[in-house]
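hi! just following up on the protien thing from before. the input was this:
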Amino acid sequence: MLARVACSPFKIPSVGRLLCAMVLFVASSARAQMLTERGVVERALARPDMVQIVRARVEAAQGRAVAAGARPNPQFNYMREQTYNASGTGEDYVSVAQTIHLGGRYRLQRQAAEARARARAQDGLSQRLVVAADARSRFYECLHREQRVAALVSLLGQVEHALQIVQRRAASGDAARYYQRRLERERAATLARLEAERAHLSGARHRLGALVGLDADAMTLSGSLLPEGELAPADALRKTAGVRPDLVSLEQERLGATLDARAARRAWIPELRLEGGYKGIGLNAGGRTDGFLAGGYLTLPLWDRGTGLRQAAEAEARALAAQKRLTESELDGELSGARAETSLLREAAVQFRETSARLSADLMHIASVGYEGGELGLLELLDAYRGAAEDELAALDMELASRRALIDLDRLTGLE
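and the predicted 3d structure came back as:
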């Protein structure tokens, strides 16, 4: 805290503030953890709560599958009947009854529940894709903000260097006060932009730190904004996207609904209940006789033959199949568009950086030589400084746009 107060921009000159910031950065980097894109994704996905959410939902669905396929428990029965007077009797009944499902209806229901458990597992993979894409977006947002800050720091240093020269010349009467005030205004504007960009960077780092479970000041990022390497062919992307977790989940949900419909069609098959046990009769007049009891019972499906359940399951299966077809039909166009957008944005970013770097270097050289030779004024030199910085900021924005397009493309294809 004392170091931050000592380096306040309102206490010391800008050059000293920059040097102080560099010292603090080096000191903090010694204890900071280096993070790459892959490291950020792995930390985001390895959070205990994230793992528990996916695992618990799958286990819950698997538990429902076990419950759906469980056999009914046997039933133990005891009954006592007693009549009075000389010819009365006392009768004891002890039996065990077991219900037997005919037609395999409950087996189909268990299979339907197992299909839905597999769907929940795929939903977990889909959620991982969302978290991975979010982690990558936050990582590159931080990287983008850091590089914008560096570009503005460089511009501020150039403006302050020019201002120091003008201040010395103005003190000796060789430069007009207008140029000094003009540069002071430029420094104030650049410093304001820099502080605003630092605020954005702080927010981005805190958002990234919240996702990966690290303090915002304990991270050092390593990576390139511009996507590297060639994109996979369109056919390969379509093949990968065809097994995307959400599509597999829809197929498993459809399978579950289809199995439920098949089970409902078998509701007309009666359930069999078998019972057997002991029967004992004691006479009030004395004596006792023992025997057995046996019985069989059929549940007659007269009123409920599963019509409503079958209709609901069949409609759900049709809806899920239609949703899957609709998603697949849109996927091809989305993939083509996302691949083209990623490729074109990357190409544009590369070309702009190459062109702007060459032109900015030429303008800086011409302006510097012209200013030293007296052919150009200070404002032309300042314009060259500002133009080079704006080109750098624009290049960074274009590189971030191409990276975001690649993240969207990976999300469409189901890649983390």
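The two ends are 39 Å apart (CA to CA).
The first strand starts at residue 33 and ends at 35.
cheers
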